[in-house]
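User: Can you model how zinc ion sits in this protein?
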Amino acid sequence: MRPDPLPGTAPAPTRLADYTPPNFKINSVDLDFDLKPKGTRVKSKLALTRVSGGDLHLDGEDIDLKSVKLDGKSLKRADYTLTQTQLILTDLPDECVLEIETTCNPADNSKLMGLYLSGGRFCTQCEAEGFRRITYYPDRPDVLSVFTVRMKAPKDKYPYLLSNGNMVESGDSEDGKSHYAVWEDPFRKPAYLFALVAGEFDTLEDSFTTMSGRDIPLTIYVDPGDAPRADYALDSLKRAMKWDEDTFGREYDLERFMVVAVRDFNFGAMENKGLNIFNSSLLLADAETATDMNFERIESVVAHEYFHNWTGNRITCRDWFQLCLKEGFTVFRDQEFSADQRGADVQRIKDVSALRGRQFPEDAGPLAHPVRPTEYMKIDNFYTATIYEKGAELIRMLKTILGPENFRKGSDLYFEMLDGTAATIEQFIECFEQATGEDLSQFMRWYEQAGTPELSVTVDESLTTPVQGTRITFSQRTKPTPGQSEKTPVVLPIKWQAIGENGPLSEPQMTVLTTEENTVSLPRFDEAVSLSVLQDFSAPVILNSQQTSKDQLRLMAQDPNAFNRWEAGQTLARKLIGTQALALESGEIPQTDDALREYCEALRNTLHDDKFDNNFKALTLSTPGTAEILQSLDQADPIAAYLAGDWLSRAVGNRLRGDLLQRYHDLSDDGEFSPDAESAGRRALRNRCLSLLASGRDAVTAGLATEQLGTATNMTDELAALITLTKLGGKRVNTSMEKFYDKWKSNPLVIDKWFSVQGMRNHVEGVSAIKELTEHEVYDARNPNRVRALIGSFAMANPNLFHAPDGSGYDFFTDQVLDMDRRNPQVAARLLGAYEIWRKLDDRRQTQIKDQLKTVIASNPSKNVLEIATKTLGN
Ligand code: BES
Ligand code: ZN
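Assistant: Here's the modeled complex, given as structure tokens:
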């Protein structure tokens, strides 16, 4: 056995440039599981064909090798090489059969990768490199094979035995106590899509008739008692199946489709072939226990994992550097699905908010990397907002540039040409070139270059008087990112339109900027003009324009593009908050009166305009969050940034008080709960009104919130009231929190919400209150959902305590991350991402966080945590 690398020394990274194809093809895999919590025996039989000279490398981790047989003959210890991470066989014949027997320990698997137990049920998570924790295997996505899985377990504890594909055999074992099942998946797949589930479940069943008339049984497996909460997921699944047929021409392929919900899960959900596994938080919902946001998320995640069946499973990735091939494309597909289900305008606003709130900071910080990275230490750390969200934006731009028909031609060709293969980004782009005749070579730069481009828009002369032939200049620039100092121009589709005092003066235009700079001319307009630039956020850039507040107010009222109407309000709000934050830091009184008054007037007009739906109004009445504000500042005091945001909400709340109160009452509950977008929009706007009113911290609002908490019949309203009360502060907060806890203590998903509200509270006791919560009777550091609820929300949504000036928040957080790292490095590494913001902060906090990162590095952490800590710290 090879010893561990020395503590603190960085292991060698994996590089895209070093890719070599595998030496062997695996024609078939036969797996045989004897399932036991403490010692599961796995027999694997691989039929191999050599494709090039060299050794056979099989990956393995945390498993015990019992025996190896080659073509039926047992191998001796000297016949193979066994290292900490690999089993290597040399001089194999061109065709052979390898049989490997191993054992693993699911009960003690706290990493939740490979085969583990959740609530006493066996389940698996193999993406990206978990299969090697089950058996020795070439655990890489370009090795595709057909799998047959046999499993055996005691009948009473594990009545359901599931795996990918179709069940071909089942029955009782000879001992009478156990039973077995055999599953066959006819589609060749990489090991990361393997899944096995065994345990006791309640089921919810339905079926879907595909476009070619095949009847597909659908089953959702949940913890006993949870079946009624799976209705919405099942309904979402059927809508997603239909949508993929209608929109992309994609039909489901296997004879059945299964979804399993588990409580202990590192991620959101996983697209295992024919057997998706979900974090129960992204599957279970009913009116009483789930919020509208939960319903919306379930709909999109169920669709996302289903859509992977084509974008990910039928066509997979050649190597993990190509991760955005499946994730970026599939996120784009789920965004388009949600847009069709719930309204494109509002969906776009939410997607862009997520992009700007999570991906822009990543792209501007120490962890910036291209959508297709060129190297990594741990692939788990590269399931990032850049690969997902920016990756989706690239597909969206491709569609914008090519147009919808050509885009569909390209995707049709992609599915036809590359079906059954492990593909690359180049192959994907080539399909679109071939189908449309377009040259997309420059488009590839988007995949290679990290950093968010800045797009500047300048005009020759003022647009405040009638203009003719005025020139608009678009120019782009991308700042250097770690390891990439030189940047070249990317292809930017810019949608724009001229807007006058009473509405648009021109049709929407599109300029595709391919060079550093480009100029276009405006026709003659007899009145003042405002430019609405980057409509629908047609490219993922930071926009620098010469727009004045007057332009933004005009756009808020007149822009036919809903996204830019919203954006104009956000820009005004960002300016107001930014000015206030600087003033707070320097102790000055800001001069924002006129601007504030006009902004509030514009909000009032939006609130009363019947043309807009409630969802749009709620989003317009939401001001940018602290994360977004910090991005636009330097050397910022995060508490000042938070207080500035709070100040704006309070100002809006005060100035619109009458309107908000009126609207709050007008929108009150009208009976039967429905999770549809329109009903959700009503609740969203009403709770937005409540929240704005609460910024004033007055008794009337406290009364409304208390009443709402007591009478709410759905979790959206109940939780909104609870959060409002915590913001209002005072004695009633503790009583409300306790009551809520008592009411919901038997429902883990609601208790997670309770922990996350606790994590966000500005407790008077300071950080020690959060620490105390980690000792709460139902806090469980082994359950990722619970840790993310308390510690994640503390680090990401509690600026006052996390960024406490004395550094106590950071001390506590680092302890928590290191504690988690001993159990579950992936979850620990993700939490540690909270320190990514450090370069944006003031000197004192910069020093404090750097010291924390050095502490982490010195403590001999996992490879996952080491990679994030060293990269975040930088040089
Ligand atoms: N393939 C991923 C699951 C995954 C994530 C595996 C990270 C390994 C590491 C799945 O399709 C996915 O993307 N899940 C997301 C949710 C999705 C809707 C964006 C997740 O788990 O966060
Ligand atoms: Zn995915």
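A couple of observations from the model: Residues 127-128, 267-271, 301, 304-305, 308, 327, 331, 383, 388 surround BES (ligand 1) (CB under 6 Å). The longest strand covers residues 178-189.
User: Helpful, thanks.
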